[in-house]
Amino acid sequence: MENSREIKQFIKENSYLFWYFKEEEKENISHEILVEFILNYGNDKSVKKLFEILGINYVADIFYKQTNKTRVNYFPQVSNFFKLYFKRYAH
Hints:
The chain is mainly α. The chain has a domain at 29-89. Helices cover 67% and strands 0% of the residues. The chain has six helices and no strands. It has helices at residues 5-13, 23-26, 31-41, 44-54, 56-67, 76-89. Helix 3 packs across helix 5, helix 4 (44-54) crosses helix 5 (56-67) and helix 5 crosses helix 6 (76-89). The radius of gyration is 13 Å and the shape is globular. The two termini are 25 Å apart. The relative contact order is 0.13.
């Protein structure tokens, strides 16, 4: 799936977060990777922009799928914060 122009621009603005991806691969990373990296490593502005672009409910769905596994890539504090946040503001 190819990302929209808006998502590609957002990835470019936050390119430093995706340091281990090859430059030419960054613009087409999956929404799952985008959500994980922005929630884990982004700042308040990038999280807000992520919600504006993808929608808070879609981001919450991705987050819940990623955190309902045995191996979770989120920092414990980040996972706890967004579980509480999405419980209050999503769906």
